[in-house]
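PROTEIN DESIGN WORKSHEET
SECTION A - STRUCTURE
LENGTH: 86
TOKENS:
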């Protein structure tokens, strides 16, 4: 189950980034996201923010992640934790 969530997140984030030619900066299409060159491989979600994963694979995730204070909702958007239940 954890592997399928990780694979879904990886594929989702891979397609949610946009490279702007002539720029060294990547942008994200979804509101509340920020591009990172070295983010966690275990991002916080509505399902795990109360009990974050203790052991994440080492390495960097390159792509769009939710900004600090936001978590990934099951609909793919970044929300504040209280909004997870809507």
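SECTION B - SEQUENCE
RESIDUE ASSIGNMENT:
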């Amino acid at each position: 189950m954890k592997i399928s969530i990780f694979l879904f997140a990886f594929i989702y984030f891979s397609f949610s980034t946009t490279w702007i030619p002539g720029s060294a900066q990547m942008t994200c299409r979804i509101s509340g996201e920020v591009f990172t060159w070295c983010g966690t491989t275990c991002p916080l979600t509505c399902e795990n923010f109360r009990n974050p994963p203790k052991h994440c694979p080492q390495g960097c995730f390159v792509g769009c992640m939710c900004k600090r204070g936001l978590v990934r909702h099951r609909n793919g958007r970044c929300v504040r934790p209280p909004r997870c239940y809507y």
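SECTION C - NOTES
Helices lie at 2-15.
The chain is about 15% helix and 25% strand.
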